[in-house]
Design brief:
The structure holds three protein chains of three kinds.
Chain A lengths: L15 H18 L13 E6 L5 H12 L3 E6 L11 H9 L5 E6 L4 H8 L3 E7 L5 H15 L6 E5 L6 H12 L3 E5 L15 E3 L2 H5 L4 E4 L5 E2 L2 E2 L4 H8 L14 E3 L12 H4 L6 H20 L7
Parallel strand pairs in A: 1-2, 1-3, 3-4, 5-6, 5-8, 6-7, 8-11
Antiparallel strand pairs in A: 9-10
Helix pairs in contact in A: 1-5, 1-10, 2-10, 5-6, 5-10
Chain B lengths: L2 E10 L4 E10 L2 E6 L8 E4 L4 E4 L1 E6 L12 H10 L2 E6 L10 H14 L3 E6 L13 H7 L3 E3 L8 H11 L5 E4 L4 H4 L4 E2 L2 H6 L3 E2 L1 H18 L2 E4 L5 H12 L4 E5 L1 H5 L21 H13 L4 E2 L8 H4 L16 H10 L5 H8 L1 H6 L15 E11 L18 E11 L2 E3 L1
Parallel strand pairs in B: 1-4, 1-5, 6-7, 7-8, 8-9, 9-10, 10-13, 11-12, 13-14, 14-15
Antiparallel strand pairs in B: 1-2, 2-3, 5-16, 16-17, 17-18
Chain C lengths: L4 E5 L1 H19 L5 E6 L3 H16 L5 E4 L8 H4 L17 E9 L3 H13 L4 E9 L11 E5 L7 E7 L3 E8 L5
Parallel strand pairs in C: 2-3, 2-4, 4-5, 5-6
Antiparallel strand pairs in C: 1-8, 7-8
Helix pairs in contact in C: 1-2
Classes of the chains: A alpha/beta, B alpha/beta, C alpha/beta.
C-alpha cells in the first residue's frame, strides 16, 4: 500500500503500516550515508525550506544533510532573526515563502499546533520538526529505528522514559509510536512534571525511578530544563540527578543489555552520569546517525505523494 | 535497662486501651502492657493514681536552634518539652541557617540525640531560604530525616508555587504544612479584627485573611491529590473548610494550639504583648468552633506553636512586639481543661497529643504497642499548680498563662527507656 | 492462460538462453578475471544469480554477484509517486572490475541508465556491460545490450512478463496483448 501522507505532522496520524514503511525506507538511506558518495539523485530539483522558529542546531543540521543527500536544494531560515521580529504573522511569513515554490517546508515552532496550522493553509508538503510541546515525529521515528536496529523488534519491549514528561514533545510522539508498534511504555518524573491523564495515551506512570526502569529493555532519558517560563519546577539539578538521573548504581536495575537513549543534547551528570554516557549501553550517537536516514526517508516519502489534482 | 511502670491508668488511644495496667520496658522498647506484670529486676516507677500514656507529641515547635540560641536551643527546648510531658517534638525551619538542606537537618537530629531530652523531628522548608520563590530539595531533606515541609512563619504567597510544592511532594510521600495567611488582607494588623481591636485602637487582622488562604491551600490539596496539614487553625471558617474537605475525601489534616482553644482576643486588653501571636487570639465564636473541631475529629492534633522570644522582644510597644508565646509547659493542663469542660473525653484528649499528631506526620511514635520505642508520659491529672513565667524551664518566659491556676502536670517522661524527671 | 497471453519462451528455452549468455560473457571477457555480475531488482537479481552459477560451473571459479535497487535513481518519481526501495547488496568493491549488469527485460533503457548512475555512485568500474533475457525494442535512450537472450519485437502497449516459479529459477516469458474492450 502506497504511502499516502502529504504531510508529516505527528505520529498520531500515522498507521502502524506507515511507520513500518518509513523505517524500511530508512534502511536504504542508512546504507547511502556510509558509502563514499553520500548522495542519490532522488529529489534533484526539489526545493526544501527548513523554517526554524526555535533554535536548534542538531535537528536542523540533520534535516539539511538529509535534503542535500537526496540532491534537493535546501534552504535554512531561522525566523527568529528576520520577519517575525518585524511583526509578520506566521501565515504571512509562510505564504511569502510559499510564493517561491518550495516543495517541502520543514518547520519547528514554539506553538503547539503550528505545523497543523501551516498544513491547512499551504499547498506544499509540511514536515513537523517539533511544534511546542505537542509532537516531534522524526525524533520518535529515529528512536524506533534505533530500537529496531539493536533489538530486532519493538513489540513487547519494556521502554522506560524518565524526565520532564509534561513539557516534552518527544514523549508524546514516542507514546504514540511505541504504542502503535506494541511496546510497553513506562513514564517517570518529578511530581511537577507529570501531566494529568498522560497514562491514557498508553503508559504506566511511576513515581519511583527504580521501579520504572526495573527490567526495562530501553531506558530513554529526557533533557531537563530547570526553569520553564521563569518558574523552577525542581529545586536543583543536584536533587534531580539524585532521584531521577541514570547512573552506575541504578542502570543495573534495567536489563543488562538495555539500551540507554536520549534525544540530546545531554547534560552530563544530570540526566546521565558520565559512567552511563560513556558506557556500552549508550546508543545516543546511533540515534543521531539514524536521524539523517529517517529524515531522508520522510522527505522521500512525502515528495512522492500527489499534490492535489489526480 | 528494664523499667516497670506500675499501677497507673494506661491510656493508649491507638490500641484502644484505657485501664489500670503495668508497662514493662526493656532495651528502649515496650516489652509488655498488661495487668500485674513481673519486673524481674526492673527499676520500678510507681504510677499509682497517675495516667500512663504514650509519650506526648508536639508537632509544631520553634526550637530556634541554630541561629537564635538566645531565645531557646535544642537542649533547653527539649528540656521544656519533657517538663511538659512531651517525648517528641517536630521543629519548624525558620532557624538560621534555615532547614532547607541536609546539613542543618542532620545537625538538629544528631544534637537532639546526643544532648536532648526529647526526640526532635525536623520540618524542612518548602522554599529555599524561605524566600517563597523556588521549592527546596525535599527529596534530599526527607532522606536526611525531615518529616514534613513548611514555610511556617510565612505563607507561600504564590499559588503557582504552592501547587508546584504539593505536586513535587507527592512522589516523596510527605506532608506539606501550611501557615495559611493572606498577607495582603493581614496588612499591618497586630490582633484580631473585632470590637476589642476597635476599642484598643489597634490595627486588626480579619478572620478572612486566614479563611481565604486556608481555602486556597485546601483546594490545591484536593486538586493535586497531595497531603496537606493546616497549622494553628484559629477561625470558625477554617474549621468548616477542613470539615467539608475531609467529607469529600481530601487528604487534609489540621491542628490547633492551646491558646486558640482557651483564650479570646479579650486577653489582649491592657496591651498584653504575651497575648500577641500569629494567628491572633480570636472571638468567642472562633474559640467555640476550634473546640468543636477538636471534638468531632475535624482537627487531628493539638500543637503548641511554641514560639520563644527574648524579654527584650516582648517588652516593647504592642505594635512592634514579636509574635508568639511559649507553650510546651502549659499545653497538657490546658488540654485536660477541655476534658473537665466536657468538650472532649480523656481518651480523645490523649489522642490529640499522641496518635493524632503521629498519624498527621507519619511519625513512628505515639503508641504503647509492644515493640515500639519506649516513649511514655506519666501524668498527674489532679496536681494543682500555678504558672510562674519566670520559673519556666524554657529560656524564654513569654507565656500567656502567667499566674493562671492549672490542674494536671507531667511528673516524668520516659524517652526510649530513659527516665526523665 | 488468460486471453491474449502467449508464451514467448518456455522454461527450457530460458534455460538454454541463459547457458548461451554465460558462455558469451566468458568469451567476450576472456575468462572471469576481474569480472562481476550485478542484477537489477527485481527480476534481474534472480537472473544474475543464475548466470553467476552457470559461469562458476563452467570455469570452476566463483564469480562475485550482487544486486542493485534503482528506486532512488529513477527519473519518474513525480509521476509515479514513491516506490518501496529495496536493499542494494554489493558485497565487493566495484573499482577496476568489469561489471555485467543483468536485467530481465530491456525496454526504454531508462532502468539501465538509472542502474549505471547508481553503480557510478557506489564505485568506479573498469567497464559496464549489459546482459538481458529479452530485448523488446522501443529504446528512448541510446542504450544497447551486449548479451541478449531473445530479441522480441513488440507493440508499445503490449507487456512482457518474466514469471519466476519458486522464486529462484527463471521459468517462462509471457507476452500480454492489451485486452480488447
Amino acid at each position: 500500500m502506497a504511502f499516502a501522507h502529504k504531510h508529516i505532522l505527528g505520529i498520531n496520524e500515522l498507521s502502524r503500516e506507515d511507520i513500518v514503511t518509513i523505517l524500511d525506507a530508512a534502511e536504504s538511506f542508512k546504507a547511502i550515508n556510509i558509502r563514499e558518495i553520500k548522495k542519490v539523485p532522488t529529489l534533484r530539483g526539489k526545493t526544501i525550506i527548513n523554517l526554524f522558529f526555535e533554535n536548534s542546531t542538531r535537528t536542523r543540521t540533520s534535516f539539511e544533510i538529509a535534503g542535500k543527500r537526496l540532491s534537493a536544494d535546501t534552504v535554512n531560515i531561522s525566523a527568529s532573526a528576520s520577519s517575525v521580529t518585524k511583526g509578520e504573522t506566521l501565515e504571512d511569513t509562510a505564504r511569502n515563502i510559499e510564493a517561491m515554490h518550495p516543495d517541502i517546508i520543514v518547520m519547528r515552532h514554539s506553538a503547539s499546533g503550528a505545523a497543523h496550522y501551516l498544513a491547512e493553509r499551504l499547498k506544499c508538503s509540511v514536515v513537523n520538526a517539533g511544534d511546542g510541546t505537542h509532537e516531534h515525529p522524526s525524533q520518535a521515528l529515529l528512536d524506533l529505528f534505533t530500537i529496531r536496529q539493536h533489538k530486532g523488534r519493538i513489540e513487547g519491549l519494556k521502554v522506560a522514559i524518565v524526565g520532564d514528561i509534561t513539557h516534552s514533545r518527544v514523549v508524546r510522539s514516542n507514546l504514540y509510536a511505541l504504542n502503535k508498534m506494541g511496546a510497553e511504555v513506562r513514564l517517570c518524573g518529578p511530581g511537577t512534571m507529570i501531566p494529568p491523564g498522560i497514562e491514557k495515551l498508553g503508559a504506566t506512570v511511576y513515581t519511583d525511578m527504580n521501579e520504572a526502569i526495573r527490567d526495562a529493555d530501553v531506558v530513554m532519558m529526557l533533557r531537563i530544563q530547570m526553569e520553564r517560563q521563569g518558574k523552577a519546577l525542581i529545586p536543583s539539578v543536584r536533587e534531580y540527578a539524585k532521584f531521577y538521573g541514570l547512573n552506575a548504581n541504578n542502570v543495573t536495575l534495567a536489563k543488562p543489555d538495555a539500551l540507554v537513549m536520549h534525544p540530546g543534547p545531554i547534560n552530563r551528570g544530570v540526566e546521565l552520569s558520565t559512567y552511563v554516557a560513556d558506557g556500552p549501553q549508550n546508543v545516543i550517537l546511533n540515534q543521531v546517525e539514524n536521524g539523517v536516514a529517517v529524515r531522508m526517508a520522510l522527505l522521500y516519502l512525502v515528495s512522492g505523494v500527489d499534490h492535489g489534482e489526480e | 535497662m528494664k523499667l516497670l511502670v506500675q499501677g497507673g491508668r494506661v491510656i493508649d488511644p491507638a490500641n484502644n486501651i484505657d485501664s489500670e495496667m503495668d508497662v514493662l520496658i526493656d532495651d528502649g522498647k515496650i516489652l509488655a502492657v498488661g495487668k500485674n506484670l513481673k519486673g524481674d529486676g526492673a527499676q520500678i516507677v510507681d504510677a499509682t493514681g497517675m495516667l500512663v500514656t504514650p509519650g506526648l507529641i508536639d508537632i509544631h515547635v520553634h526550637l530556634r536552634d541554630p541561629g537564635y540560641e538566645y531565645k531557646e536551643d535544642i537542649v533547653s527546648g527539649t528540656r521544656a518539652a519533657a517538663a511538659g510531658g512531651f517525648t517528641s517534638v517536630a521543629c519548624m525551619p525558620n532557624t538560621k541557617p534555615i532547614i532547607d538542606n541536609k546539613a542543618v537537618t542532620r545537625y538538629i537530629i544528631e544534637k537532639a540525640e546526643k544532648e536532648g531530652f526529647a526526640r526532635v523531628f525536623p520540618v524542612g522548608s518548602i522554599t529555599k531560604g524561605l524566600d517563597g520563590d523556588c521549592i527546596s530539595e525535599m527529596g534530599d531533606m526527607k532522606e536526611a530525616g525531615c518529616v514534613a515541609f513548611s514555610d511556617d512563619g510565612k505563607p507561600v504567597t504564590s499559588s503557582e508555587l504552592m501547587r508546584c510544592a504539593l505536586d513535587y511532594s507527592k512522589p516523596f510521600d510527605t506532608v506539606i504544612i501550611t501557615h495559611a495567611e493572606d498577607l495582603d488582607l493581614v496588612g499591618d494588623g497586630v490582633m484580631n479584627e473585632g470590637f476589642v481591636s476597635t476599642e484598643l485602637g489597634l490595627k486588626g487582622i480579619p478572620w478572612v485573611a486566614e479563611d481565604a488562604a486556608t481555602a486556597r491551600d485546601v483546594m490545591l490539596c484536593e486538586f493535586t491529590g497531595a497531603r496537606l496539614h493546616v497549622a494553628h487553625v484559629s477561625t470558625k471558617g477554617s474549621v468548616e473548610i477542613i470539615r467539608a474537605a475531609k467529607k469529600r475525601g481530601v487528604k487534609v489534616t489540621g491542628e490547633a494550639a492551646p491558646h486558640h482553644f482557651t483564650l479570646t482576643d479579650e486577653t489582649v486588653r491592657g496591651y498584653n504583648t504575651n497575648a500577641k501571636m500569629n494567628p491572633p487570639l480570636r472571638s468567642t465564636e472562633d474559640v467555640a468552633a476550634v473546640r468543636e473541631g477538636l471534638a468531632d475529629g475535624t482537627l487531628d492534633a493539638i500543637a503548641t506553636d511554641h514560639a520563644p522570644h527574648h524579654i527584650d522582644e516582648k517588652n516593647v510597644e504592642f505594635k512592634i512586639a514579636m509574635n508568639g508565646i511559649v507553650g510546651l509547659e502549659t499545653a497538657l493542663p490546658l488540654t485536660l481543661d477541655l476534658v473537665s469542660d466536657q468538650v472532649i473525653d480523656l481518651n480523645r484528649a490523649i489522642e490529640l497529643l499522641t496518635s493524632g499528631p503521629a498519624s498527621v506526620l507519619n511519625l513512628p511514635v505515639g503508641t504503647l504497642t509492644v515493640g515500639a520505642w519506649a516513649d511514655v508520659s506519666i501524668i498527674d491529672p489532679d496536681k494543682e499548680w500555678i504558672v510562674s513565667a519566670k520559673d519556666l524551664i524554657s529560656k524564654s518566659k513569654n507565656s500567656a498563662f502567667d499566674r493562671r491556676k492549672m490542674k494536671g502536670a507531667a511528673v516524668a517522661t520516659i524517652l526510649g527507656g530513659r527516665l526523665i524527671q | 492462460m488468460a486471453k491474449g497471453q502467449t508464451v514467448l519462451l518456455d522454461s527450457a528455452a530460458v534455460d538454454r538462453a541463459l547457458t548461451r549468455i554465460a558462455h558469451e560473457i566468458l568469451e567476450q571477457n576472456k575468462g572471469v578475471k576481474n569480472l562481476a555480475l550485478v542484477g537489477i531488482r527485481s527480476g534481474g537479481d534472480i537472473l544474475g544469480k543464475e548466470l553467476a552459477e552457470r559461469i562458476s560451473r563452467i570455469e570452476q571459479v566463483e564469480v562475485p554477484c550482487g544486486s542493485i535497487d534503482i528506486g532512488l535513481y529513477r527519473d519518474d518519481l513525480s509521476s509515479r509517486g514513491t516506490v518501496t526501495v529495496g536493499p542494494t547488496d554489493i558485497p565487493f568493491s566495484l573499482d577496476g572490475f568489469s561489471i555485467v549488469l543483468v536485467d530481465d527485460v530491456l525496454f526504454t533503457g531508462r532502468t539501465i541508465r538509472a542502474a549505471m548512475d547508481a553503480l557510478m555512485d557506489i564505485g568506479r568500474p573498469r567497464n559496464i556491460q549489459l546482459a538481458v533475457l529479452v530485448d523488446r525494442g522501443h529504446r528512448e535512450l541510446p542504450i544497447r545490450a551486449d548479451f541478449v537472450g531473445r530479441n522480441v519485437p513488440t507493440a508499445k502497449e503490449e507487456k512482457v512478463d518474466v514469471i519466476f516459479k519458486n522464486n529462484n529459477s527463471a521459468a517462462e516469458v509471457h507476452l500480454l496483448k492489451p485486452q480488447v474492450k
